Amino acid sequence: MTAEPSAPLLPRAQRTVTLLTYLMFFMFAMTTESIGEVIKIAKQDMGLSNLEASALHWTTMLALAISGISLGYLADKYGRKFTVIAGLAIYGIACVLFLFFDDFAIYLVLLFCSGVALGMFKTAALAVIGDITSSADQHTSQMNMVEGFFGVGAILGPLLIVLLEQNGLPWNWLYGIAALMCLLMIILAGGTRYPPMKPPTEKIDLSRTFSFLTNRYALGFSMGCAMYVGCEVAIFVWLPSFLVGFEGGAMQMLFATYAVMIFFILRAIGRFLGVWLLSFLDWKQVIFAFSTMIFLCFFGSAVFGKSVAIIALPLSGLFMSVIYPTLNSKGISCFYPGEHGSVAGLILFFTAVSAAVAPVLMAVTADLLGGGDLRVGFYLATGFAAILMLMAIFNMIVDPAGPRLRHLDEEASEGL
After folding, report:
1. Which tens digit of pLDDT belongs to each residue from 273-311?
2. Mind listing the domains of the chain with CATH numbers?
3. If you write DSSP's letter for every residue of 123-143 in order, what string do you get?
4. How far is CA 22 from each of CA 144, 185, 198, 236, 240, rounded to the nearest angstrom?
């Protein structure tokens, strides 16, 4: 089994596949982006230290990284549909088991399993986007739309945790909802024909995935995504702690209280806005302008402190919106469709490692150099933003991937 049927995909089937992709990213965000609220509750209910509670975040990210680089090729070898259903099945089972246990160690095992499953169906979903688009620009537009649904899930997930807590219900019911969504998506995927895959031009295995580590396109876009994720997780993991003790007027306190929620809302709005912006602006210029604004938001917060951070850091979500889906899309689009699963897995590996390691590095920096002051930790995050901006400047001036993207677009338009 190496590919789905080769007949053209009917419009109804393509709409269903697109909807499934949106739903997978929505559910992915709904569970993973609510981890801050879960940590807050778990610390109190289970008597966890900060270090112990942080494992609820990095366990999933570590598994996601391992899965991305070691299992990303499955979508290229065994087909998108098979990999999507297998990943959703594993994820759904892990979510169901959350409802039957109340043990920290078991939670970590389940989170690791769910991270592996996420890596499987996410890389397959990313590969599907390449199958249903016909150019690099169309791929980028679709990726921004997908990430828009991710942004909506990131808003709804934490909100559901809060509502469950307010009504005296356990937080793990969120995973019960996710399990039901998995079942629905498995049924939809099972009854839908996925788009045809082009036959692979070489043997598909794990060694091929690792070979992309020496490819300048894969490595360059992976590093850009990693720097972006380092900025993003800094906000939803550490901004609430950074703002502890802040005092100000009524409006300032309102912004401080809902800073992360505002960030998620602006990020979701920005991702849909990104689809529109990229329809008439060059992607390199957009990445440069938005990465510069992200750096300024972080720099102002690091220099001037909490009074600026309550506005600037949530506002950075609007500018972050376009960065990840665009870099991810262009990185994947530098390769032939038969390689998309493996490349998506490699990029996912770098982003997941960044998501796991960056918050830890910020905490260590704050503890060792700032006596626990997370403002010092945000100096490091500002460094991530500076590197991202410098990479965007280089990309805009040199355009290293431009010839490759244009060549593959020409081949696609010729039907090769």
Report:
1. 777 888 888 999 999 999 999 999 999 999 998 999 999
2. 12-195+207-413 (1.20.1250.20)
3. HHHHHHHHHH-SSHHHHHHHH
4. 11, 11, 23, 22, 29
Confidence class for position 313, pLDDT limits 50, 70, 90: very high
Report d(CA 193, CA 202) in Å as an integer.
25
pTM metric for this prediction: 0.78
d(CA 70, CA 253): 45
Residues 6+ apart with CB under 8 A from 50: 43
Say what the pLDDT of residue 203 is: 58
Please give the structure tokens belonging to residue 335: 């390769």
Q: Which residue has the tokens 């990029």?
A: 347
Burial of 338 (0-12, 13-18, 19+ CB in 10 A): buried
Closest of 144, 118, 121, 140 to residue 268, by C-alpha: 144
User: Could you please report the per-residue DSSP string of 301-364?
Assistant: HHHH-HHHHHHHHHHHHHHHTTHHHHHHHHHHHTS-GGGHHHHHHHHHHHHHHHHHHHHHHHHH
Q: Taking 80 as the threshold, does the pLDDT of residue 175 lie above it?
A: yes
Residue 372, Ramachandran bin (φ over 0: left; ψ between -120 and 50: alpha; else beta): left
**What one-character DSSP code corresponds to residue 235?**
I
CA 155, 71, 217, 276 torsion-angle sign: negative
Q: What is the pLDDT of residues 113-127, one digit of tens each?
A: 999 999 898 888 888
Structure tokens at 131: 């199958």
- The answer to whether the CB of 4 falls within 8 A of the CB of 80 is yes
Neighbour count for residue 406 (Cβ, 10 Å): 12
CB 401 within 8 A of CB 330: yes
Whether the CA torsion 186, 87, 8, 23 is positive or negative: it is positive
